[in-house]
Structures are given as structure tokens and as C-alpha cells.
Design brief:
Layout (H helix, E strand, L loop, with lengths): L4 E6 L2 H14 L4 E4 L8 E4 L12 E7 L6 H8 L2 E10 L7 H11 L3 E4 L20 H15 L6 E5 L5 H18 L5 E5 L7 H10 L4 E2 L3 E4 L2 E5 L2 H7 L5 E4 L7 H10 L3 E6 L9 H13 L4 E5 L10 H9 L20 E3 L1 H6 L1 H14 L5 H9 L3 E8 L2 E12 L3 H8 L9 H10 L3 H4 L1 E10 L8 H12 L4 E7 L2 H9 L3 E9 L6 E8 L2 H17 L9 H7 L11 H7 L5 H14 L1 H6 L2 H8 L4 H7 L5 H13 L3
Length: 647
Amino acid sequence: MNHRQGVVVRGNSEWQKQCLEAISNAYTGNIFQLGGSNGRDDIRVVAANKGQQLLGQECKVLIVDVSQNFDANSFTSALGTVVGGGVIVVIGENLALDGYAYKWMARAFEQFLMVEQGVWLPLQPPAYEPIDVDCFAQQKLIIDKIHKVLSGHRKRPLVITADRGRGKSSALGIASAELISHKMANKVALSILVTAPTIQSVQPIFEHAKRLLTDAEVSKTSLTWQGAKIQFIAPDELLKNKPHCDLLLVDEAAAIPLPLLQQMVEHYHRMVFSTTIYGYEGCGRGFSIKFKKWLGDNRPGHQFCHMSQPIRWAENDPMEHWQYQTFLLNNDLANSAYSKQAELKLTIVEKQQLFQSPELLRECFALLVNAHYQTTPNDLILLLSDASVHLFAAFSEGVCVGCIVAIEEGQLDESLIEGVKLGKRRPKGHMTPVSILNQYGLVAAAQQESLRVMRIAVHPDWQNVGIGSDLLAQLESLTDYDYYSTSFGATSDLVRFWQANGYVNARLGSQRDQASGCHSFLMVKGKQSWIDEVASLQQYSLCYLAKDAFRNIEVDLLKRLIVAEHQSVAIPKALNNYVQGGSSFDAVAPFIEKILLADGNALERASDLVIRKVVQQWSWTECAEAFSLTGRKQVEQQLRNDLSLLR
């Protein structure tokens, strides 16, 4: 039998230890433990929140100690390492969760075999009849398709989606090794780049390639074999430097913003995208739908393939079913035809309702998973356990068509505020007030009560008709806070949406988020006097940092972030002279910037070259490289042409 089994061991610590000893001795193969400690040298133990460190490895027994800490993301990651015929053993006298999250997981673990001290052993569940199938058949087809990406026509990207445990990463590694070996037979050293949100997620690719290229040199970020190379590169570095490669592999693509994927497709012409649709990543089908539509318009020769056949375990695996049901990872959205006459009413959904009506929670969470690639099992636990986190939802004929997850923040006491001001304290769960207090020193933001929108999702069939804006308006009518806020990975479209709903710019993070590749952006809304001050200070900060920390930010996003005063500015004669070939750039650059920052129309019409050179102060060499011009003379001529259109 190639299915996995879950067991809960309940009893005092000495009795649990004896049970674990018996279970461990009954299995051959690796044994991992998540959380707690273990005195055996042959058992690899990782912290309760570090299950991702086990990805790409396999074990027969996974011991999970839930007594001190429980991290759902880590737990679901570790489950994927257990192979068919293996067992997951849950130990711990208490489940380290609060509120309805405790009740939710306790109810879920009751579906495991219960082995209790002083109680007769339970009956084994009925065995599943194995199905005689070639579990590698789909993987072989995928490997052939990856080969054709390199050997076939250009501009025909392949997109692979798969559930966890289907051999997606191993397919990428095997195909890469085979391609390198075949090309080397013709004395061609292949260069393959691999990009992903985190370097940990691509380790299985290197490991499976190494199995075929046994004498290859492998480091954490690369594999080299007879001059050929597989090299990891972060998404932001890839798009910044655009290094040459023969083939680009983009793993866990759903966790990379669509605009960045589009830039990759436009530059690289032989690409394979892969992503986990369900599983620990928590991403839904939103990626597939949106990306497939864009590829259909821009790369009509693309291919989409889904891997459904498990490799690590047999089909109908009870643990996989339990995992998806417990953490709501495989709930497809119900169909809901948009109705213009429908009156959507946003209501708060209490935690007790969510626990007592799992179908209601599944309905709302399916929408969140579909809309947000970063929605994870930990979000489910947070929603059920944290009293400050609230779920608001709107339904049409019983189907959730819109929902908002928001968290209460603020009302910090004076001692805590002083600690934050001095950089000694950073209270968890108060992102907006702490950020504003740190950045601008405005105490009122920390003293007042606020609500931060963490997630907002609208059913795909109800999008682009104003539903999101309507839900936000209803949220403000339904609640009573001093101010509202939101934070997200900044893209021009998202910033435009929130600005249209009255939110003002508060803070742009200087570093790009590792997962999204975007700068985090904080926006606030309210009638408090300090909010106007924040917006003004953010404008000064942005314009200054556009020349340094934000000098590589996307031009369309920068235009959206700069809040021009929309007032006419007299154009100096020197600028007219410069456009016609006279004067000098250094003499007119300050005036050009003043015009752009004051006149919203001029800012919107300005070319990318004008923004890069004037506002972000790129060098002549950088501009020449970015815009495929030969040197300063050609750049300056193009700049003069572009500026002539602004007069």
C-alpha cells in the first residue's frame, strides 16, 4: 500500500517516547521531526516553523510536536516530504493554538488514528485498493515538452501547474540535466537560469540534475558540468541585469507578480514556468487564469500543462485529502453570474460562525486563495485565532462574491509608544501605527484606533464593475475607526485602485519584497489632520529617494506615486533653447523636474527616458543601455525630442 497515515499519540511524556521508539523502529528510511526535541541522532529535528527546510527531501516517518508551537505553513510543507507507506505522528500534551483555531485543528486531528495511553488500540481504517498506473507517465511527457521549448520555435513558453508531490521540480531538474548532456555531445555548453521567489524552493531542481550529472560541481546557487551551467538568480536581479541564457526556468511562478512575469516573457524567448496550484504555497487558480489570458494575447504559441498524477504516494491518498480539507487548499470557486440588479450587503462573519459552518469558511477562503497568491494556511489559523482579525463578506444567492480580511491596530499605551520611538519596541500586529511612528514621529497614529485591510477579494465574474470600491465604502459605514489603512506590494494598478477610493500615500518600503518582487506600500484614509502631513512628507521622501533607493522603480509606478500639484508652471526660455539644441542639460534639469512635479499632465505625458534621466537621475550610460541608444549624444537628442512634446 502506497498511502500515508496520520496517528495522534496521547499520554505522558515517557509513554509517548516509548511509542515513538516503537514506531521509528518499525520503519526503514529517513525520520524527520518538526518541533520539540529528540535525543536520537538518526532523527533530523527542525524547529516548528522551519518545515520548509525539509522541502525536496523524503522521509518514512514525520514526528510533529505541537505542544510548544504550531505553524500551519511549516506543517503543510513538512507533510509533503512523507512518501507513500509513511506515517505522520502527532505528539504533544497540548495543541499550541488559541481560540477557534485550536478547536479547528483539534477537530481535524480527531480524524487521525488515536493511540491513547491506557486505551485499547483503535481499528485500522479499511485499506484502499491500489490502482495499477505508471506514476511517472505524466512527468515523462512534461520532460519531453521542456526539451521542445529549447529545440522548437522561439516565443512558445511552457507553463506547468501541479499539486504538491507530483514531481514538478524533479521534472525541471531531470530535463535540465538531459538537455545539458545532449548539447554537450555536440560540444555546446548550455546555460540555464532558474529564478524563483526563494532559493530554497529550487534546491530539488539542482538535486535531481546532480543525480544524472554525477560528477557535476554543485553549490547552493549553481550546478556546473563540463562548462555547462544551471544558475539560480533572484527575480529582481534577473530583470535588472537581464543576463543571457539558453533557457529560463521560472519556478513557483504564482508567487511572482504578473507584471514581472510579463517582463520576463518579453525579454526571454525560451521559457518554462512552473507553479504549485494547491499545497503549502496556498496559491489558487487566479494565477493560471490571469497569466493564461495574457499569454493568449501575447504568446499564442504557449502551452499549459497540469500534473495531477502523484509520484510520492498513490492516488486517493487520505493524508492529502485531509490536508486539503483542513487547510482549505483545494476549494474551487462556485460559479456566480454577475447581476447588475444585485444589492450586495457586506456583513461581518464571526469566528464562531466560521467554526460551526465549515462550508461558509471554505467558500470565503476559496475566494481569498483564488485572488491572492500569498494567502497561506497560516492566514486560516490567524483568521480563526486572532480576536483583532475580522472577516467581512458579501453574498449573492448563497455564493461569496466579495470579502475583506482586516485587522484592528493602534491604541498603544504611552510606554509602548516611547519604546517604538526609540527603536526598542516593535509590537506585533500594529504595522501601520508603528510604521508611521517610526517614519514620521507622529504619535497620534499610534494612539488612535485603526483598521488595516489585509486582503480584499472579489469573485472573478464580478470584477471590474466597481464591486471592490463598493465593499470598501460599506466597510467604512459598517465600522467606526479613527482611520483606515492598507499595505501591499506596489504596482501601478493597485495604487490607482486605492487612490480612487480615497487612500493617500503614506510610506514606500525601500527594499523589494522577496516573494512579490515589489516594494511594500502603505496607504491611509481618514479625516485626521496628521494624514495630510503624512502624505506631504511621503511626497518629499519619494522625490528625494527617487534618485537613490527608488532609482530603479518602474516608471509607470513612480508616475502613479508622485502626487503632482496640477498647477501650470512657466516654462523658462532656457528650456526652449535646450530643446532646439542650445543651453545644457545641467542648466535646465532642475526646471524640467519642477514642471513634472507640479503639472500632472506633463508628468503623465513624460517619456520613460525623461523620468529616468530627470527625476531618477540616471547616468547617460545607464540611459543609453536601457533604451538601446549608442551613447550620450544619441540619448540627449532623444531627450530633446521627448521634451519638445511637453511644451
